[in-house]
């Protein structure tokens, strides 16, 4: 069941206009980044296919505050989303979740891994506390976070879940503890969303897994574009060298790092380095994050999500129980004498403790600031990498920038080498790049295009709110089971039965088997009504015979009263002198037959005194035919409007500019428009069925 | 035709013996569970030994011996080498359980069925899966997907779902639908209409009181004893149900600020709890939730002291205490020792939380009335002294010499092969060897013959017939360089190789074993087991409460009726329970219920016919689905056509569709319908099994409504009444409950 994907098109029109189409099942798969489209931050990707809607991630943009930091939620209708999948706990992937869950019409289900959920709460509570925005700009408060916790469901790595026909599972992504890559399968079309991932194993995390199945579309991060990372040991050496030389010259080292995730890796490196260098033991390392301290329990518990190395270490002692690193609560507690190493959040240097320390230390030449990870455009951390002469302090004053700035990336994002090998092994026919700065992404796209030149791989870099549309003509397969399948039919034979759809699987089942293969059951409704009638039974019989083709008379086995079986469906029985009873199995046709019998009986009672005159109805074949023709014409007019008699006896039906010619005798239709032809054909067939009398065989079919 | 499925029980049918079943699916042989009892009776494994070599994969469902105990033995003795699949907790706790069993048994007997190394190597090949992970088998099992699902009985406990070609075979034993403190209930009920369900009848006849009541009785019994200055012994398993008991006690102690000490005593208790702490993902929602909110790990036990040897318990302060000790069977382990000590005191209480295995001491004590006295064998491992020690050492020396000789021979052969000189040159060394080992010379000779006559191993090979060539000795001009110390008899200098028991800390222990345990395992002093029989008067109170964490008979029946498998296979349970459940299921669940005997292969291939057909766009564009819960349903009339690729494709009919009898789809619940009519302002009441609607109309359901699965599942509804407006109105409402197709 492979599908041909036609060229993806990009369109920037709002998704809202297509709301009506969302409900209709279509073969069009639409992917729209609401954030992180040709930018880094506020990751949020919206996807619909076959009336199912999935959203990946729900972050904020760290460079903005308030509403401006949100992804473009107004582009979509949150109530249509079935599943929301969060890859990891970083703010740019998860921080707008409380807002989205509590303040929008979203009513789907949210999933993340266990570790992500545990840290998410701590991290966002912290975020609410430290963000210095006015109350009306606050996107959510502590209570919203707590309430969101109740709505978030957990998923374990590799666990396959199914919601509303959408199947999904996740793989280890390696980026931070609990980070996942989600694979979503809707009607056989697979989409992989990597989130942030790293293919390199480090001190505590596993490398991202290579999914077992190749996806049809891979939505992949491109943070580092075409850059290549230095090997890990070189980076570690540069890092420790910078720190060592700075403190040996009496300087202070500031490491602005995001509180969780990479910070733990850096602390592991520092702690190990200090253990190996006793001469450094008098230089304190501070870790200014009460948050990280609170998260330690999480790191200690989910060791099963980490690599073998840490699990082996854990067996002896807890590697996250640092021997040379002490926590620092606030700048007031910090006794700034002599050399020290301080790791403080946030990593962007926008506010908080890291900024306070930066402002304090930036004028001193012997101090150093080591930026250990990716920095987002528009933040101070990004600004100082380019080493401007002056910087603006928090208090609005400008100061000379003398501090040594080092940029040594430890962020666990894939570099070009990892991205290209990952994609090469995965071989997705469609690649969508997100989570990357526009220029960097453009270079990556160019390079990947050349790399995959010999394959028919499409690489797309949509901007925010720019939809990527693809078509997947999936063939629907049904499984015929049970009685219907006792014999596999030959070509041209007909098969009739119930088509049952659950999720995206189809079954064709005989009505009797329905309860065997599904949880549905069928019912037979037997109806029995009694009608007052005191006339002779024979009268009824006579009248019925006039109307119905088949009236069989017999006697009831038990009571011996005469019965009539009309049209093989309805049994009329003379219960007593004054009553007739009718019983039949509920069925539209039988119901109709019974209604007519009831009417006939009631009429017969009223006309009782009259003598029945036997008059054979005059059958005029020609008249009959004319009548039928008239009805057919009238019905066609009501359906198609303009219906005329053509010259050759055919009916000419014109709808807009399309014309169809209908042969009334054999039902043949001629038209250039296939759709119209088909419709006229079906309509004519149905009309013919309607004007003809009900065949006696209807019940037995 | 459907997928071929055969089930052959290898152990554990019509009785409570351990579980072990062979399930082959299209020729791919699964061994599901590989259990052994606490007696480690090899005769139970006879059927397994006959099929072990043709097994393609092993699936483990729970971490206790009843489900995986025979694994090390089978891998070692029967050549079972298939890949094993289990969840992470089953793997880890199973390993710990086996260690505990081994250590307990070794303490009191010359246990030689398997060693710690055998356990480690058996568990080495375990592929760990998470719940609901679809694992696609490859190779011979291509097309088969296996997935573990929550069973609810033990941590990591698994209901296995094996799928091939859309047909499900489900193996669900010892499941628990009730949510507990540390575990979620089973998800078995979410599987509907599997082709085959294999389940147990173990609890088919039992009934349980409510959890609240049972928990209260549990702590009451314990507290009464403690307040009466008695001790409480809970014989428990190593790492299974004990976790729930620990949580119950921990929580109760916390809430009521009790100070009676609680001890958890197994050889590996502290590693057990350490590992359990990192398995939060596998536990109940409430545990996960409390961790997310407060980051308090539920298994950070404040009131429970973890002990790994009995001396520590003896050092504990005097006074009433609770001890949870393994094994639950009271056959071996700390529980046995403590029982012997405590049984004679009428103030004490021995509280059983699970039914003892058949034929064990625990089972005997649970009988009604309990025996007044039991015979116990008090065995102890004591270090060798005096003559015995000397004799033992002499023997060891012999063995060592023999080994040295063999090594010499091997070495000699290697040398010969390498340098290509003739045998004569090596003669002095051989003579040297003879001088060393006159006593075992015969064997030495034999080896030499083999080596000299006719067989020259290639120089690259490492002596294929001798697995012990690592003992490489150094050579100088005078032959082998010897260490004079080897020939001096010294007690403290015995090395690992000279012990009667070769203990080695397996890599898998990750150094997590407790010191005491390690010291036991590394105990280098030669020792022997001294046994004495004695009779213990049982004066203490004996209580049995069901904390087994299995669904009870009634729930099992309702779950089975809900799952409604097409074919049902019953295993594990007393003959009486099996027969009872079989009869019940035949009547209420499905017409195909099997309860095979040991080694009786039953064929549960579904007689289902099926073929696949492609639904063309043309056909589908004219289909209007009606939605019914998760399902969407429509009537289709189609014409079959063969596509170029030989696939069947269905197209719309070219002729007028033949009329068909209409189908009413839906499930009418009389009570719900009554509510519905009442809501519409119609007077309704039940009268004599029928629903009286309004003044004249009656509505009845005929046929056996309780029967599910069977042919009678089509509901028969009769509506009766005189001709009146009301009749048609009610009929209208009735129709509205169904979809007519």
UniProtKB/TrEMBL annotation, chain A:
- The name under which this protein is listed is Beta-Casp domain-containing protein
- Top-level taxonomic group: Eukaryota
GO terms of biological process kind: mRNA 3'-end processing by stem-loop binding and cleavage; snRNA processing
- Where is this chain compositionally biased, Polar residues type? 1-14
Q: Where is the composition biased (Basic and acidic residues)?
A: 16-26
Record Pfam families: Beta-Casp, CPSF73-100_C, Lactamase_B, RMMBL
Q: Which residues form the Metallo-beta-lactamase domain?
A: 41-229
The record ties this protein, via SMART domains, to:
Beta-Casp, CPSF73-100_C, Lactamase_B
Q: Per the record, GO CC terms?
A: mRNA cleavage and polyadenylation specificity factor complex
User: What is the first-listed, main subcellular location in coarse terms?
Assistant: nucleus
Keywords noted in UniProt = Hydrolase, mRNA processing, Nuclease, Nucleus
The record's subcellular locations are: Nucleus
Which ranges carry the Beta-Casp domain? 263-384
Q: Which segments carry the region annotation Disordered? A: 1-26
Q: Which residues form the Pre-mRNA 3'-end-processing endonuclease polyadenylation factor C-term domain?
A: 491-694
Q: Which InterPro entries match?
A: Beta_Casp, CPSF73-100_C, MBL, Metallo-B-lactamas, RibonucZ/Hydroxyglut_hydro, RMMBL
Which GO molecular function, any one, fits this protein according to its record?
Answer: RNA endonuclease activity
Name the species this protein comes from.
Cynara cardunculus var. scolymus (Globe artichoke)
């Amino acid at each position: 069941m492979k599908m041909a994907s036609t060229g993806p098109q990009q369109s920037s029109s709002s998704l809202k206009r297509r709301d009506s189409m969302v409900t209709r099942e279509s073969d069009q798969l639409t992917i729209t980044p609401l954030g992180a489209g040709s930018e880094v931050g506020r990751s949020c990707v919206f996807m619909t296919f076959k009336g199912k809607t999935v959203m990946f991630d729900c972050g904020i943009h760290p460079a903005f505050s308030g509403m401006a930091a949100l992804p473009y939620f107004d582009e979509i209708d949150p109530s249509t989303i079935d599943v929301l999948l969060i890859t990891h706990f970083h703010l740019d992937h998860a921080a707008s979740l409380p807002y989205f869950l509590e303040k929008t019409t979203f009513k789907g289900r949210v999933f993340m891994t266990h570790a992500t959920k545990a840290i998410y709460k701590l991290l966002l509570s912290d975020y609410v506390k430290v963000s210095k925005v006015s109350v009306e700009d606050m996107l959510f408060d502590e209570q919203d976070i707590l309430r969101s916790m109740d709505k978030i469901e957990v998923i374990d790595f590799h666990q396959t879940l199914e919601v509303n026909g959408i199947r999904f599972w996740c793989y280890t992504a390696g980026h931070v503890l609990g980070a996942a890559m989600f694979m979503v399968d809707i009607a056989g079309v697979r989409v992989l969303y990597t989130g942030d991932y790293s293919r390199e194993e480090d001190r505590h995390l596993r490398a991202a897994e290579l999914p077992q199945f190749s996806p049809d579309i891979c939505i992949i991060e491109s943070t580092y574009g075409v850059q290549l990372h230095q090997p890990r040991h070189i980076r570690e050496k540069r890092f420790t060298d910078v720190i060592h030389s700075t403190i040996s010259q009496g300087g202070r080292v500031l490491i602005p790092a995001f509180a969780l995730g990479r910070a733990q890796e850096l602390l592991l490196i520092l702690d190990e380095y200090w253990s190996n260098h006793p001469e450094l033991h008098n230089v304190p390392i501070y870790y200014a994050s009460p948050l990280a301290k609170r998260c330690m329990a999480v790191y200690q518990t989910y060791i099963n999500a980490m690599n073998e190395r840490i699990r082996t270490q854990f067996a002896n002692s807890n590697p996250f129980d640092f021997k040379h690193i002490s926590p620092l609560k606030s700048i007031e507690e910090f006794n700034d004498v002599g050399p020290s190493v301080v790791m403080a959040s946030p990593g962007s240097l926008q506010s908080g403790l890291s900024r306070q320390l930066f402002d304090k230390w930036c004028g001193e030449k012997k101090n150093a600031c080591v930026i250990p990870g990716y920095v987002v455009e528009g933040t101070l951390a990004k600004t100082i990498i380019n080493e401007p002469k002056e910087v603006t302090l928090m208090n609005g004053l400008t100061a000379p920038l003398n501090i040594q700035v080092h940029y040594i990336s430890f962020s666990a994002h894939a570099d070009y080498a990892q991205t290209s090998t990952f994609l090469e092994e995965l071989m997705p026919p469609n690649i969508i790049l997100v989570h990357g700065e526009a220029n960097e992404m453009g270079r990556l796209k160019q390079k990947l295009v050349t790399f995959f030149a010999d394959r028919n791989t499409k690489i797309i870099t949509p901007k925010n709110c720019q939809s990527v549309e693809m078509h997947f003509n999936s063939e629907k397969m049904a499984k015929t089971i049970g009685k219907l399948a006792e014999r596999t039919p030959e070509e041209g034979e007909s098969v009739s039965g119930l088509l049952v759809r659950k999720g995206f699987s189809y079954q064709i089942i005989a009505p009797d088997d329905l309860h065997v293969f599904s949880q549905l059951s069928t019912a037979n409704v037997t109806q029995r009504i009694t009608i007052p009638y005191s006339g002779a039974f024979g009268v009824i019989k006579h009248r019925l015979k006039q109307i119905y083709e088949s009236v069989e008379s017999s006697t009831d086995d038990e009571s011996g009263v005469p019965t009539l079986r009309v049209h093989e469906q309805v049994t009329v029985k003379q219960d007593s002198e004054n009553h007739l009873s009718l019983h039949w199995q509920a069925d539209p046709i039988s119901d109709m037959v019974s209604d007519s019998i009831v009417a006939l009986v009631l009429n017969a009672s009223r006309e009782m005194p009259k003598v029945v005159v036997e008059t054979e109805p005059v059958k005029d074949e020609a008249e009959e035919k004319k009548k039928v023709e008239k009805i057919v014409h009238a019905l066609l007019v009501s359906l198609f409007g303009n219906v005329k008699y053509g010259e050759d006896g055919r009916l000419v039906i014109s709808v807009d500019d399309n014309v169809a010619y209908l042969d009334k005798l054999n039902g043949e239709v001629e038209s250039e428009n296939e759709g119209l032809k088909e419709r006229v054909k079906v309509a004519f067939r149905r009309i013919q069925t309607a004007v003809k009398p009900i065949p006696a065989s209807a019940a037995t079919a | 035709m459907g997928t071929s499925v055969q089930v052959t029980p290898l152990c554990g049918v019509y009785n409570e013996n351990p579980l072990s079943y062979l399930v082959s699916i299209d020729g791919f042989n699964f061994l599901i569970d590989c259990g052994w009892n606490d007696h480690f009776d090899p005769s139970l494994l006879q059927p397994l030994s006959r099929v072990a070599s043709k097994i393609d994969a092993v699936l483990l469902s729970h971490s206790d011996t009843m489900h995986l105990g025979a694994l090390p033995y089978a891998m070692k003795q029967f050549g079972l080498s298939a890949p094993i699949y289990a969840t992470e907790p089953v793997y880890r706790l199973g390993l710990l359980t086996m260690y505990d069993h081994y250590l307990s048994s070794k303490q009191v007997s010359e246990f030689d069925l398997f060693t710690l190394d055998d356990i480690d190597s058996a568990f080495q090949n375990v592929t760990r899966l998470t719940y609901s992970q679809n694992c696609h088998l490859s190779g011979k099992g291509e097309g088969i997907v296996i997935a573990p699902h929550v069973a609810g009985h033990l941590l990591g406990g698994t209901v296995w779902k094996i799928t091939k070609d859309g047909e499900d075979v489900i193996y669900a034993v010892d499941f628990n639908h009730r949510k507990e403190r540390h575990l979620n209930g089973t998800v078995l009920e979410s599987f509907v209409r599997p082709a085959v369900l294999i389940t147990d009848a173990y609890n088919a006849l039992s009934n349980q009181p409510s959890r609240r009541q049972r928990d209260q009785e549990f702590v009451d019994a314990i507290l009464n004893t403690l307040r009466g200055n008695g001790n409480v012994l809970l014989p428990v398993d190593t790492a299974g149900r004990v976790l729930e008991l620990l949580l119950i006690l921990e929580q109760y102690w916390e809430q009521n600020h009790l100070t009676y000490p609680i001890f958890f005593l197994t050889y590996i208790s502290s590693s057990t709890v350490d590992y359990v702490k990192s398995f939060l993902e596998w536990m109940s929602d409430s545990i996960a939730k409390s961790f997310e909110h407060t980051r308090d790990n539920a298994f950070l036990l404040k009131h429970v002291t973890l002990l790994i040897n009995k001396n520590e318990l003896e050092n504990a302060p005097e006074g009433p205490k609770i001890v949870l000790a393994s094994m639950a069977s009271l056959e071996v382990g700390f529980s046995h020792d403590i029982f012997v000590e405590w049984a004679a005191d009428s103030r004490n209480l021995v509280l059983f939380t699970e039914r003892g295995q058949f034929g064990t001491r625990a089972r005997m004590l649970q009988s009604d009335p309990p025996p007044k006295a039991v015979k116990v064998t008090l065995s102890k491992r004591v270090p060798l002294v005096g003559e015995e020690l000397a004799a033992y050492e002499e023997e060891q020396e012999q063995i060592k010499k023999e080994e040295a000789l063999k090594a010499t021979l091997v070495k000699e052969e290697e040398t010969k092969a390498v340098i290509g000189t003739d045998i004569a040159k090596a003669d002095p060394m051989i003579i040297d060897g003879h001088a060393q080992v006159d006593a075992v010379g015969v064997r030495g000779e034999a080896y030499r013959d083999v080596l000299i006559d006719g067989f020259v191993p290639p120089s690259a090979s490492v002596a294929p017939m001798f697995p012990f060539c690592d003992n490489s000795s150094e050579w100088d001009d005078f032959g082998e360089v010897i260490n004079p110390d080897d020939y001096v008899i010294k007690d403290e200098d015995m090395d690992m190789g000279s012990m009667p028991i070769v203990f080695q800390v397996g890599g898998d222990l990750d150094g997590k074993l407790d010191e005491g345990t390690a010291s036991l395992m590394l105990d280098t002093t030669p020792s022997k087991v001294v046994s004495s029989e004695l009779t213990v008067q049982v004066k203490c109170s004996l209580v049995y409460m069901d904390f087994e964490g299995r669904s009870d008979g009634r729930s099992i029946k309702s779950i089975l009726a809900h799952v409604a498998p097409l074919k049902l296979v019953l295993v594990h349970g007393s003959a009486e329970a099996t027969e009872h459940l079989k009869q019940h299921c035949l009547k209420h669940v499905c017409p195909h219920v099997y309860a095979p005997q040991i080694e009786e292969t039953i064929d549960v291939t579904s007689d289902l016919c099926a073929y696949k057909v492609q639904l063309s766009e043309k056909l589908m564009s004219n289909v209007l689905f009606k939605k019914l819960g998760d399902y969407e349903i429509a009537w289709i009339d189609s014409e079959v056509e063969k596509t170029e690729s030989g696939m069947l494709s269905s197209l719309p009919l070219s002729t007028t569709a033949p009329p068909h009898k209409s189908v009413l789809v839906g499930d009418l619940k009389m009570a719900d319908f009554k509510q519905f009519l009442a809501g519409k302002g119609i007077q309704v009441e039940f009268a004599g099994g029928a629903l009286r609607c309004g003044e004249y109309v009656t509505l009845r359901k005929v046929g056996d409504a309780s029967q599910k699965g069977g042919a009678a599942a089509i509901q028969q509804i009769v509506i009766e009444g005189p001709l009146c407006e009301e009749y048609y109105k009610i009929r209208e409402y009735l129709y509205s409950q169904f979809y007519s197709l």
